[in-house]
Please model this.
Amino acid sequence: MEQNVFEEELKNRVSSVEGILAEFLPEETGYQKTIFEALNYSLLAGGKRLRPLIMREVYSMFGGSGPEIRFLMAAIEMIHTSSLVHDDLPCMDNDLYRRGKPTTWSKFGEDMGTLAGDALMIYAFETAAGAFSKTSNPGRVGEAIRVLASKTGIYGMIGGQTADVELTGKQMDGEQLEFIYRLKTGALLEASMMIGGILAGASEEQTARLENIARNVGMAFQIRDDILDVTSNLETLGKPVHSDERNQKITYVTLYGLAEAAEKVRELSEEAIRELDGLPVKNEFLKELIMNLITREK
Amino acid sequence: MEQNVFEEELKNRVSSVEGILAEFLPEETGYQKTIFEALNYSLLAGGKRLRPLIMREVYSMFGGSGPEIRFLMAAIEMIHTSSLVHDDLPCMDNDLYRRGKPTTWSKFGEDMGTLAGDALMIYAFETAAGAFSKTSNPGRVGEAIRVLASKTGIYGMIGGQTADVELTGKQMDGEQLEFIYRLKTGALLEASMMIGGILAGASEEQTARLENIARNVGMAFQIRDDILDVTSNLETLGKPVHSDERNQKITYVTLYGLAEAAEKVRELSEEAIRELDGLPVKNEFLKELIMNLITREK
Model:
């Protein structure tokens, strides 16, 4: 697939995801109006929409074509957004801006920022549970919800956030760093690919393979991030470089050096692509997307 | 049922609920150990365990006897606890103690307090989803999870918390106050009774009636709280009285006076008991429990 064709396709699919997301936004009315506003503001603040996008690509790759997927696509983006909203809070990263816009708490206050993150988390499950009314296979929807919760929770994303808070500023080793990368960044990608497969009827073995692919992609993506912080520049990256050095942050690059980091990205990507090619079903766009994530310059 | 028999029964059932809760506590090990500790600390800090208790009474009243209920019982207590953990945060009520023990954030830090509330919310759904592996009726478990999310979220408990934050300190009217009571206190009681019914196979009409009973009980419970704050004393209540007056809080009593508040509790209780008696199934203990909640002196 040529790069410009891919980019055009990607743009179309991102707007399609945003259209789906828009269907689930609550109306901003009632005594609890502020929470609806804060929730919608957070969800509409932009982003790559990577998780729902990948979920749908896997779903269609396995022949899925029902309405259930929309509920889970919206749900995973809500979960992802909730984690950003809480990460930005004064007691966490204390960020005033994200993607050039005021963070939820800095716009709505710290109490509403806390409640908006909570609201997004719960609304994600409320939305996901809506799929039960549109499916002839409640067992699959149940398994999708179980995976969503488990990859989000204490053994997934929240576990990773905890380890990050606990270990940052300490002399972390490679195993600890990989643990954080795998849970904090990787877990929701794993959920995206697994849920796409589960809802389309992928076998247990195929779902385990999807999990493994996503794990490698997530890790490669994160190490690529560490590399770009050292090698890129403000214009290309669109955000300040050398921030890890300034913050004395331990990264894959500070632990192993640039060359070994680049080699690791290559290994992880090759394994991900090999496993993807080994599946009995194909999706050229998904493959291209994964390659682009790993080799990206920004 | 004699009062001392009831109290003995209640004690037994509360320990049984706590035994179930204990089965779902995560092991405190791994790089994210602190979140496990904070989660377990919050869950084990005590409480009346009213929601899981009522859920199981309704379940057995409708003839339920399977293992699914345990997952949902633990889940609703986790949701309830998560709301307390976040309510206590400095940006919310800024409470250092709850039931005589340091609040989660004051023990583990503000960042871990925030993450622990998040973790409890998500772990609730992870736990609830475990019921899919133990049921022959995934549709019912799905409906139970949908109700759990919807009564917890922006149209339920979190909606009530938002309205409470927004309206407290302003000149609230009776409609606004009842909105907050119904959502903030009532919604999880509604979920408890409805889920007990749904999992045991109650009809839609019966589930709607359970919702209505719980709504009236929740409202009566809350107004009774307002009354006791004025009429009780420190020894009986076990916490300082006249706190609403000191905080210039608008309550049912400040809006309507003591006599009308007592009359409202009577009306709501009578309707709840009438509806409960109108069901084709009976549970004497549940009836006694509801009466006790409404007429309680502490």
User: Anything to note?
Assistant: Chain A touches chain B through 59 residues (CB under 8 Å). Residues 3-295 of chain A form a domain with the Farnesyl Diphosphate Synthase fold (CATH 1.10.600.10).
